[in-house]
Write a structure and sequence with these properties.
single chain; mainly beta; 14-stranded antiparallel β-sheet
């Protein structure tokens, strides 16, 4: 198990955020792309191209700094105000849905290494830092902030309870039990590709994901 910058986003899930500052106002779009398994309104799609988008404004990008009760700390950038959508390509069929408000946020934990699309789940709206799509490793480690146009890639996590050892099982939780709500019904993102050790636990909190994704930031119209 790697000890490199352990706890990516774990502090975000464990404590409140202290956020300050914002960039000058400009439209910004965050895009995540990967090939994976998903379901929408009960229909399962295997190994399909999936694109997540979050459209917001750089004025709402805020710096955060947080220390959890376990002593772990993190800092970076986050944006919670915006419109999140998903596109699924199933053969010649293009399916698009819009997430209902208040579920999806985009975050960069630059202190621990990782970025992507996180969510707020259940009635308590707790943060799921590694779901529906968080990315670790290089070159996503080089993402400077959430207001610089560019494109990065990394290991793709769609992990309820990230990091996996947070659940004391070494595995991710069952995402089907935590659907995200869209205008076309419940949406679930699965994580079918991951490496395990002899005990059946995910081998590493950073490199244990065997799928890759891309993440882009586009500032401007």
């Amino acid at each position: 198990m790697s000890t490199r910058r352990k706890g990516f986003f774990a502090v975000i899930a464990a404590a409140g955020w202290f956020a300050t500052g914002s960039a000058a106002a400009a439209p910004v779009t965050y895009t995540g792309f990967m090939v994976t398994d998903v379901s929408l309104n009960g229909q399962h799609f295997h190994n399909v191209p999936v694109t997540l988008k979050f459209a917001g404004d750089t004025a709402n990008v805020q710096a955060f700094s947080v220390t959890a009760s376990n002593g772990k700390s993190g800092s970076g950038w986050q944006i919670t105000q915006g419109t999140a959508t998903v596109q699924i390509i199933n053969g010649v069929q293009v399916i698009q849905a819009t997430f209902l408000p208040g579920q999806i946020l985009v975050a960069l934990d630059s202190a621990n290494g990782g970025a992507g699309f996180s969510s707020r789940l259940c009635v308590d709206h707790h943060v799921a830092p590694g779901y529906p799509l968080a990315m670790t490793g290089s070159p996503i480690d080089g993402l400077p902030d959430l207001v610089t146009t560019g494109r990065w890639s990394g290991h793709a996590w769609s992990c309820i309870g990230y990091p996996p050892d947070a659940l004391k099982t070494g595995r991710c939780g069952n995402s089907a039990s935590y659907p995200l709500h869209t205008n076309h019904g419940p949406f679930v993102m699965f994580m079918p590709y991951f490496g395990t050790d002899a005990a059946g636990t995910i081998v590493d909190d950073f490199d244990g994901a065997l799928n890759d994704a891309t993440f882009s930031v586009l500032v401007g119209p």
